[in-house]
Recover the amino acids of this structure.
């Protein structure tokens, strides 16, 4: 099988892990920088070029799309979809999950637990936003932030108002969320592949920090999800139409609350913490989908 990994970082852990897992199973692998791809849109003849080279004879793609290039990444994935090539991440799934506001709206429609969240169009009445999520402390998030960047804990009303007003002045869109004190600076990440939780870990923020991102010095341990946490993670991924995703949840007094669903989750933290070959599970998904499609064509 010929597999293309769409990645701007061929030496990154996740990209390398996927390439090695595929090669161990006898597949041919290419790492392609999706920002160097162009598409030809023509009736009945969709094509993708990598530089000047036509990309043909590809059986599947594994997109690793960074948040800053979501638009370009979705366009390239969509073109491969038009060419009937399987992708572990659909263009629609990428767009729905990367848009934080849209993602939360869709999850709320599916009756999935969430921290109470407020969004307005640069509202001047900041006290209304503060009161709407139950007062301070509260969390303020940039809609375009990643890895814990652009996430601020406001401990009192004055700080919250000041931060919101500052973002409004520079026309940066934010959401305001309730602070879940009982989570104690920890969250749970569930890695879902093909409708199954294949690995899970609990991340704990370092002392003095409330963000539990491993990029920010958090520690992690391997855990087994509760049945409610597992149902929540699977329901969220299904709602967004994702084959592979990382679901971040807070453990609260009212059950698991989904913070984010990452359509291109990093594999290093969860693989090293749990000892589970997550990359191998993703390659097995590719094999099932491609082999299944070939069997259908043969009938």
């Amino acid at each position: 099988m010929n597999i293309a990994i769409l990645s701007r970082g061929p030496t990154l852990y996740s990209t390398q892990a996927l390439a090695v897992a595929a090669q161990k199973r006898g597949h041919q692998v290419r790492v392609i920088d999706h920002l160097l791809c162009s598409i030809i849109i023509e009736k009945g003849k969709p094509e993708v070029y990598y530089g000047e080279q036509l990309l043909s004879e590809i059986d599947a793609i594994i997109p690793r799309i960074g948040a800053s290039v979501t638009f370009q990444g979705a366009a390239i994935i969509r073109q491969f979809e038009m060419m009937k090539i399987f992708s572990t991440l659909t263009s629609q799934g990428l767009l729905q999950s990367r848009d934080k506001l849209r993602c939360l709206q869709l999850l709320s429609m599916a009756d999935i637990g969430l921290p109470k969240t407020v969004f307005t169009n640069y509202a001047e009445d900041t006290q209304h936003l503060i009161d709407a999520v139950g007062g301070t402390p509260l969390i303020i998030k940039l809609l375009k932030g990643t890895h814990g960047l652009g996430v601020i804990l406001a401990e009192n009303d004055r700080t919250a108002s000041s931060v919101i007003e500052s973002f409004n002045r520079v026309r940066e869109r934010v959401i305001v969320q309730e602070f879940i004190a009982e989570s104690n600076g920890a969250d749970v990440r569930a890695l879902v592949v093909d409708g199954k939780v294949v690995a899970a870990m609990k991340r704990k923020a370092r002392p003095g920090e409330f963000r539990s991102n491993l990029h920010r010095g958090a520690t992690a341990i391997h855990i087994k999800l509760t049945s409610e946490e597992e149902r929540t993670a699977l329901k969220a991924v299904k709602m967004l139409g994702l084959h592979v995703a990382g679901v971040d949840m807070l453990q609260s007094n009212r059950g698991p609350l989904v913070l984010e669903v990452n359509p291109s989750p990093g594999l290093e933290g969860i693989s090293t913490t749990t000892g589970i070959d997550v990359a191998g599970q993703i390659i097995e998904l590719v094999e099932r989908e491609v082999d299944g499609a070939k069997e259908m064509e043969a009938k």
User: Anything to note?
Assistant: Residues 278-298 form the longest helix (21 residues). The domain at 97-113+183-263 is CATH 3.30.470.20 (D-amino Acid Aminotransferase; Chain A, domain 1). The chain has a mean pLDDT of 93. The chain is about 35% helix and 25% strand.
